[in-house]
Amino acid sequence: MYNYIYQTVPGFFMLLYLVYAQECNITVHDHLSEKIKTANCSKRGFRGVPQTLPRDITVLDLSGNKIRRISNYSFENYSLLHNLSLAKNTLHIMEEHAFYGLTRLKFLNMADNILNLKYVYNEEIFLPLQNLINLDIRRNIPSQPTVDLYHYPDQAFTVLKKLEFLALDIAPNPIFGIGFQGLKNLKSLTFEFCFLKYLRGCTFENFSSNLDELKLSRCHLNFLEVEKNALVPFPKITKIHFEESCMHLKQALNILSPYNGKTIEILNLRGLNCPIFNNNEYPFSLKVTAGMMRYLKTVCVETLDLSDNGIVDFEENSLLSFDRPECLKHLYFKGNRFAFAYGRHMDELKTFFNKSVALKTFDYSYIPVRYKLYANDYRQYYGKDYHVSNNVIYLPRSLEKLVLGNVV
Ligand SMILES: *[C@@H]1O[C@H](CO)[C@@H](O)[C@H](O)[C@H]1NC(C)=O
Ligand SMILES: *[C@@H]1O[C@H](CO)[C@@H](O)[C@H](O)[C@H]1NC(C)=O
Ligand SMILES: *[C@@H]1O[C@H](CO)[C@@H](O)[C@H](O)[C@H]1NC(C)=O
Ligand SMILES: *[C@@H]1O[C@H](CO)[C@@H](O)[C@H](O)[C@H]1NC(C)=O
Ligand SMILES: *[C@@H]1O[C@H](CO)[C@@H](O)[C@H](O)[C@H]1NC(C)=O
Ligand SMILES: *[C@@H]1O[C@H](CO)[C@@H](O)[C@H](O)[C@H]1NC(C)=O
Ligand SMILES: *[C@@H]1O[C@H](CO)[C@@H](O)[C@H](O)[C@H]1NC(C)=O
Prior knowledge:
Leucine-rich repeat, LRR (right-handed beta-alpha superhelix); 2 domains; disordered N terminus; ion transport; membrane; Leu-rich_rpt
């Protein structure tokens, strides 16, 4: 209806636009000797791309409007744009020449729309965007796709040779075809929303092997089955975010073999257990074994988050046994259920502290151990323990934050 008016009676469209849309705020400032001219049209009720803005704008914020379609040549008169946000509209159609003229664009944000990855990404759509660095199209699939198998429009993406950052949704059983090999400069890959069920050895095989950061968090709608070689395509990763994905800590630890002996800055494995885990293979209450730790043990890891994983105990030389403990800076064990109650656990902790010379954070809070026996009596519990060990813990000199609170 709207497009009909736009195409046939432009004058009437202008009237509509004046009635429904307030003017945009235009500001100019210098940034690193570059002139930034911003048109902020955020939340003004626009139903199409406004055409009366200054032609030399470099930043255009159209987020939070009511734009449903990007028509051909919508931006042809804004060829200096390097930042464009169309986030939080109701976009569901992009015409073939929607981005015509945007050869300087570096940042494109279309998050929080309803662009269906399967149908709306025409092979030509991104052709003008040869300088795009950052593309955000996450949170566009509103609910779990009914068909698992999902072919991503790889031929549309393949022209984005300079892309470094990509954020998008991931379907239950995604297929990232050969076109993704074109994204040779991709450094950071974020998936959100996540409906993933199968993470296979071939899932990421067509992405750049230079990837530095992978975010695959909050995949908690399905049990996520992970093949052992899932991360083999990414040998250079230094930041891994799997938090709140139902993949189970056992599987997450089992795919770290590509990083044997390497450095990982962030390994976020917080909350990988879900109420659906209750079998022997993937128990809800987990005892960490040396076998599970065999890859992680060798990694020089700086920030490690193992919070909320239902860990009730750990074997000798497992959880606290690292080949390079001097790498560890921040360690989080929050919300598990294991104790340093017995001699051996306490001894391992002491040895660990002696060796982790760079440790700044050790977070072992909210651990409901022995709730029935020592209900809420933190001092009694720890007092007893120290008494049994009859010993003193030497904390690393580097330690800035020791959180032992809420141990009940
Ligand atoms: C737009 O600019 C006007 C005048 O500078 C200012 O009062 C107003 O708060 C701005 N609106 C927004 C949404 O930033
Ligand atoms: C536009 O204004 C909104 C507030 O109305 C602000 O949140 C947003 O960051 C601004 N966009 C840009 C690109 O400055
Ligand atoms: C947009 O351009 C394409 C390619 O030229 C054309 O097929 C399509 O009909 C155009 N869309 C409209 C609404 O004119
Ligand atoms: C861009 O500007 C030219 C010249 O003023 C005009 O003919 C054309 O319609 C404009 N494009 C759009 C999409 O409004
Ligand atoms: C352009 O967008 C990116 C990503 O949203 C942002 O970090 C950057 O500050 C923006 N630049 C300008 C000049 O608004
Ligand atoms: C990756 O590309 C190859 C061609 O080089 C293709 O055979 C394969 O199926 C692609 N992988 C996926 C998961 O689509
Ligand atoms: C830890 O270091 C302290 C002081 O250097 C030493 O007395 C203690 O024996 C060490 N403990 C362990 C378990 O290595």
